[in-house]
Design brief:
It is a single chain. Helix content is 43%, strand content 14%. By secondary structure, the protein is α+β, with helices and mostly antiparallel strands. α4 packs antiparallel against α5 and α5 packs parallel to α10. The protein is globular and about 65 Å long.
Amino acid sequence: MWRVLRSSVTFPPVPPVGEVLRRYPRAGEPLACEPLTKGLLNHGYRVSTTRGTFFLKHHLDKHHLDDASGDHATIVRQHRATQQLHSLGVPVAPPLADTDGDTVTVIDGRRYALHPWVDGLHRDGAQLTTAQSRRLGSLLGAVHTGLEQVMEAAPPPAVRGQSPDPADTFALIDDLLASASAHGTGPRDAFDELAVHRLVERRALLEQHAHRRPPPPGEPARGWVHGDFHPLNLLYRGPDPVAIVDWDRLGVQPRAEEAVRAAVIFFVRPDGELALEKVRAYARAYRRSAGASAAELAAAVHRVWWERLNDFWILSWRYRLHDRRADPQFPAVSALAVWWTRAYDAVSEAFTG
């Protein structure tokens, strides 16, 4: 008799673990299934069986996400990429194949994949030494060069959208200010007060720096990227990473921009400042590993800075979608945009020096 272990977090219906495992006879019989609470979008479960422990992933379909990352062919492509990266020595945890050689199991229209369980811990930049930060940059560079080897050639550049328009951001700020100022039926809480403060502050910064909007992009070095490289998608055992997980956002993007986005997630401090010495070590290692130039990183820094200055996704989740799961990230994320603007030259030098 197998059991389901529940937490206080609301999850979708229990996955059909028994039916899934019947397609993987070597995995054994199910004993327990525990939903995992890390992450914002994925549905994952730790499954214990008579033969070990596994990670069961429910791939959400494209109606649940803002792209087609749950499409069957897309999932298969992700799986093949991780299998090939694994053969190159990149630390990943490819899915297991069932008795028919498939890595995607479809039950009642839902898609599942079974992976080996990887014991490890998530670490943010505060928990990494400078040497480990350097290895992190080298690892991301290895991901980018590895994907270049194992994936089909990147498609011709589509017409990339313009960078965010301050006029649109001002309208969004006004809308979010109205929501935060009159939140619910009761008085504003501490989060609402911080939201109002940051929105007013950001509007003033945008008015001051609107002339620095990046020009239409030229031809940055595009290639296949992980698409979501951050601490919750990297597992450590000891000093080194043992698995890069969650390849749902695998796609073609400017590679240097992924490097910058990853760094500002890993190395942001609670007060919104970046640990620039670690950023410098990480960026130098990335440039060597990926063959990226300082000019590529400088352009990426500018585009990601502008993106962050105009971005209010956490507040949109809270006030438009009534989803508060990302609220704990807001203090540091919102402070980063302000600090980065004031320390722009120092941040750019850390990525390019």
